[in-house]
Amino acid sequence: MIKNFIFYAIVFLPGSNTFDWDNEEIGTPGAFLIRNNHHSEFYLKSLTLEDVPSHGVIHFPCNSWVYPASKYQNDRVFFSNKTYLPAETPISLLKYREEELENLRGDGKGQLQEWDRVYDYEVYNDLGNPDKGPQHARPVLGGSTEYPYPRRGRTGRAPAKSDPKYESRLNLALSLNIYVPRDERFGHLKLADFLSYALKSIVQVLKPEFESIFDKTPNEFDSFEDVLKLYEGGLEVPEGVVKVIRDNVPLEMLKEIFRTDGERFLKFPLPQVIAVDKFAWRTDEEFAREMLAGINPVMIRSLEEFPPASKLDPKVYGDQTSTITKEHIESNLEGHTINEVIIERKLFILDHHDALMPYLRRINSTSTKTYASRTLLFLQKNGTLKPLAIELSLPHPEGDQHGAISKVFVPEEKGVENSLWQLAKGYVGVVDSGYHQLISHWLHTHAVIEPFIIATNRQLSVLHPIYKLLHPHYRDTMNINALGRQILINAGGALEVTVFTSKYSMEFSSMLYKDWVFPEQALPQDLLKRGVAVKDSSCPHGLKLLIEDYPFAVDGLEIWFAIKTWVQDYCSVYYKDDESIKKDAELQSWWKELREKGHGDKKEEIWWPKMQTREELIETCTIIIWIASALHAAINFGQYPYGGYPPNRPAISSKLVPEKGTPEYDELDEVYLGQRDTENWTSDAEALEAFAKFGKKIEDIEEGMKRMNNDEKLRNRYGPVKMPYTLLYPSSEGGLTGRGIPNSVSI
């Protein structure tokens, strides 16, 4: 009778390895124990046995760091690549299966060390640093109804000296030593990727030194040209700044940050959004397109009532109904009325009003000055979205119960109204960028998936089919989350410095975790909830998109259903009916712990799947894989192509919209040749017609200048310095552009 059995490997490094194998009445090797008698750890990729009687080759995938035997209470165990449900596990392996899970759970005590393999839960009590003073304290996230949050991996560091409910923090220079189970740590290449991304973290220690670079307006760019220098040559950094960097930034980061010659620290690759046309990002079409194909394409929804209403409690926040009227938008609806376009499902909204308004007064008490926003869009015949109006709102100065103070901006082509419209789009960008970073990206992918990783490793054996299904989608997440808590989302960290929510960033994300619903993370459910799709059995996948050319949704649905088909096929191999789901002890423990501990602040929610059927298992695993893979890719990897050029995706605003009569407002009011500061400057129709003809001629002349500047034969227009002649371009963008013909001698 063939039996599974255990064999032993004793490792002496450097030197030969020996295997103990009892050849009498031999069965099928199902696992091996290994003991490292060397003084340092090694990485065990795999073990392969060849010429095994009746079996040929048997593989043992390991992919684990093995530390010296003195670091473990038991020898390490590795199983073959066979898959077993708990009840089907050979008796000779069952003890090792159970003991391995016990080792991974730990005992919940003490500070965890680098060789530990423990997966355990903790609240987010490590973001603040009260030992540095009250200004560095932040709320504990998780474990309360006021600040609910997913759980993170426990490190077991000692409590803070000034307040034991907080965990003490590591010194910045020791950030890379933060505990995660050793096999969750980055490989070298992934570490390099993270360090490049974590470049932002140096803002914490370099902010005063960088002020000397931007002399006119510290902490701000003086013009678009200053921004472009980041990509077209870089900004030289004073030696004093370099010294501060070397004194405060870990060596590994320095290797990623500095060029080999040590010069031009502030130089970045050219973002794709300006690679072809440096000003196309300013167009209304691109502004709207990025809501469908940019880095936050998960927010736009169908507008089903007009004016847009609020779900905020009117007893607390007063009347928060939108002040956008039909007079603001009906002229841009291709001849339709508002009622018609709502019925035809052609009116959409990017709504950052209700989410932001409860926190806006606090946020604007910091250096940030911004608005809650609503952006209305119309689906045109050509399939693109046209922005119709932007509403920017502030809390009422006399108190929240008095409602909001709002301004409405509509598209304008020229004059100060155009400048105000561009500003309004900028404020929408600020809010959307912050929401993207904190909610769409951090909370809805990184933070919510970590409890699944912990529960999977604690409750599902490596022999379990669902462990094998999900494990590839957990790689590196705990490590990047831990490093994020250390240098990005912590008090005073890079995110607080670079996102408009400032010190309220993480508690703001906690407020929006209250709205997180696991089943709605499924892409089809998300699209239906936002009203951008309807059920239609005649369409692929049974869904009809109301915006046919919606790249995120179109491509996402293909990926979603491919994942679901794979999960369904895989699960059907191991689970033949619903009863097998109910009887799987590890699976039931996994799902119970995930709900009650990992997402414990939501354990009473009725929407959690019961995990009693194959369909519930398939949908659950599909959602997990979707979040960890495709959803994260869609909202992460476009950050630099779109957001690497700050004017396209601004993250902070430090002033409100200028009011008439202020110097800031006057700066907006530059009127160029062929323009007037008001459309009604005369009632004479012939004069208006003649002026329109003049304006068109000026525009044509500018287009001709651009063509000549691109003509390689006209070498004097470009020259060896590659600087096109633009001084007589009639129009100009904001800032010091070296172009534009003002109507008057104004400076």
Automatic annotation (TrEMBL):
Q: Which SUPFAM superfamilies match?
A: Lipase/lipooxygenase domain (PLAT/LH2 domain), Lipoxigenase
Q: Which GO terms describe its biological process?
A: fatty acid biosynthetic process; lipid oxidation; oxylipin biosynthetic process
UniProt pathway annotation = Lipid metabolism; oxylipin biosynthesis
Asked if the Swiss-Prot or TrEMBL record annotates the protein with the keyword NADP, the reply is no
The record, for SMART domains, names:
LH2
Q: Where is it predominantly found?
A: cytoplasm
In what residue span(s) does the Lipoxygenase domain sit? 83-747
Q: Where is the PLAT domain?
A: 1-80
Keywords for this entry?
Cytoplasm, Dioxygenase, Fatty acid biosynthesis, Fatty acid metabolism, Iron, Lipid biosynthesis, Lipid metabolism, Metal-binding, Oxidoreductase, Oxylipin biosynthesis
Could you state a single Gene Ontology molecular function term? metal ion binding
Give compartment(s).
Cytoplasm
Q: What does this protein do?
A: Plant lipoxygenase may be involved in a number of diverse aspects of plant physiology including growth and development, pest resistance, and senescence or responses to wounding.
Protein name stated in the entry? Lipoxygenase
